[in-house]
Structure formats: structure tokens, C-alpha cells
Sequence to fold (199 residues):
Amino acid sequence: MNDPGGAGPRAGGLDPNRFRLNRKAAVLLFIDVQEKLWAVMPPAAQAEVQANLVRWIEGAKVLGLPIVWTEQYVKGLGPTIPPLREIMPAGARPIEKLVFSCGAVDEVRAAIRGKAQVIAVGMETHVCVFQTVRDLEEQGIQTFVPADAVISRAESNRKVGLDLMRQLGSAIVSTELGLFDLTKTSGTDEFRAISKLVK
Fold:
């Protein structure tokens, strides 16, 4: 596994770096939040997840984090939902795929080459997000999954997906935890911008 820096494992095998985000090492992987599939997501979960996806896009821009953006079978599932598509960085374009795992897509692998950490957000938790995380962990890339920025049609499937990713070694975090871990310090313009996002 790529080590983004630090002292390494402690006695007992715990590696604190496994749970430490490093903005120089990290990329945001934004997975398949598309119109036709989004429409069948649980209405009670949509508002929170959409708000957190906005926070991740805007936070990545504040922190200078690269965003790799995918769409699955656009002909069938449509494009990314407008509130998210419209705030992507200028010039960004989605990578279209047919396989579920982003880790199996050459263009995605090329886009994240040289990065030791991937923050995976989007949908569905138990399909594209899970399969992506499984492949990336196998490839030696640390993965972080904000539980409040992934969604599935059934909450039971979301929970199963998160549990399996945790067993694979992925760090299951929250949006606020992840953004502040990347920010590291208070009293800066970045901190003030991130603080506004998470309020």
C-alpha cells in the first residue's frame, strides 16, 4: 500500500496513516450520480446526500483536490444531475463507463495515477462504489468513503456495501470529518471556506 507519510504502524498493527487524509496524495472520485437512477433513490436520503456531494465538490475546489468524475451508461441512465453537474470545475468532463468498477476503467486509472488515496462518493453504494473500492484497495490505493455522501435504492444495501468496504480496509468517514482532516488547521481562508460549507 502506498504510504502518504508518517511514522507507520504502531504496536499491535494499527497504522494511523490508514485514517489520515493527505491532500497532496488524495483525489475525489465522483461516481455516477445520474438523473434516471437518482430519481429512484429514497427521497428521505436524497437531500442530505446531495448536500454532502455539493460540499465535496466545493470543498475539493477550495483545497485544490483533483476531481475524477464518472457516469455509467449515459444512454440509459442520463447525465449527472444538474445541481452537481453545474458546479463541477470549469473544463471538467465526465468519464463514461459501462463496467461498474471505476478501478477497471483505463481512463480513470490514468486520471488517478500517482495518487495514494481516493475519496469515493456517489452511487450506488453496494454496486459501483463497492466494486470500485474493492478494485482500488486491491491495487494498493487507500480508499475513504464518506457514509453520508453515498446512497443506494435500499438502505439495507447501502449498509451492506459500507460494511463490506470497511472489511476491505476502506476508512468509512463522514463529509465533515474528511473535509476538516484535509484542511488540517484553523485560522486560514481555506478553513473559513470549509467551515461555511459544512454549516
